[in-house]
Specification:
The protein is mainly α and 292 residues long. It is 80% helix and 0% strand.
Length: 292
């Protein structure tokens, strides 16, 4: 192991753990723009929900253009957030079992060749094994740290773009308020005028219906009065006929005041005598009395 490797191995080791800590911090920073993006999407939904009330014109056209740019900026933010969080493959040193296996390979290697090449190594066998293990660790720390640094820088670059895009999106969203309320206010005035006109038309139609109903009611009352007069005439005629019939019946009754005996039937027979029966032990006595 060279002097440079011995000097930098601890430095690369610290950088290795530092970059992994940075990765977690960067991932935590993504939560803030996501929350802010939710508010911007709510504002965009508010605009889209009120599009039906926007009056066509200069203000309405300006609002639709700003709304389109605002919606596109939100899509851009979503894209940048996805690029700043996904598709990152961080590097890590091998697991302990792999490191141990590699160390055993070095030990076996030097057990085999150390005595033969002892003059070449010029250090003890244990030092040779340790140097090879340190060289491997140096290589692991250097490669992984370099890759992770590049990934973190790339992620931070996208997050900075997210910040810029959010500022632009916020400006577009706030500027869109001006034409939105102008076009919406004009539409509200026209809506009130239309509602008043509709109310006036309904009132006129209602009065017309009331007038027609009044005429129909007068006509109906006249017909009912005529019908009542006809019923009264018929009732008087019926009462007169009833009075004449009653008078004729009275005359016939007076003429036949004495009844004819032969025309009267004989009375029906009277009821049978009452028979008393006492149940129980006194029935035999009644039988004996009847027998006597």
């Amino acid at each position: 192991m060279s002097v440079v490797q011995k000097y930098y191995i601890e430095h690369f080791k610290e950088m290795y753990y530092y970059e992994h800590e940075q990765k977690e911090k960067i991932n935590g920073r993504i939560q803030t723009p996501i929350g802010f993006l939710t508010l911007l999407i709510a504002l965009d939904a508010f605009y889209i929900n009120g599009m039906e009330d926007i009056q066509k014109g200069t203000s309405g056209m300006a609002f639709f253009i700003l709304l389109s740019l605002f919606s596109l900026s939100l899509l851009g933010i979503v894209y940048l957030l996805i690029r700043s969080y996904y598709a990152y493959s961080y590097k890590y040193i091998p697991v302990p079992s792999v490191l141990e296996s590699k160390a055993n390979e070095y030990a076996t290697h030097f057990d085999t060749y150390y005595e033969q090449y002892k003059d070449y190594y010029k250090i003890s066998k244990d030092d040779c094994i340790t140097n090879e293990i340190d060289k491997n660790m140096y290589h692991y720390y250097m490669i992984t740290t370099e890759t992770n640094m590049m990934l973190n820088e790339k992620k931070l670059t996208y997050l900075r773009k997210v910040g810029y895009a959010m500022i632009i999106s916020l400006i577009l969203g706030l500027v869109s308020l001006v034409p939105y309320f102008i076009a919406h206010e004009k539409n509200d005035v026209q809506k009130i005028e239309v509602e008043k006109l509709t109310e006036l038309i309904d009132t006129i139609q209602y009065k017309k219906i009331r007038s027609d109903d009044h005429n129909d009611l007068q006509k109906t009352v006249q017909e009912q009065e005529k019908l009542i007069q006809e019923i009264k005439i018929e009732l008087e005629a019926i009462q007169l006929s009833k009075y004449q019939v009653t008078k004729e019946v009275s005359k016939m009754t007076d003429q036949n005041n004495e009844p004819n005996i032969q025309d009267i039937p004989p009375p029906p027979p009277g009821p049978a005598p009452i028979r008393s029966i006492t149940e129980g032990f006194q029935r035999d006595e009644s039988v004996n009395k009847d027998t006597e």
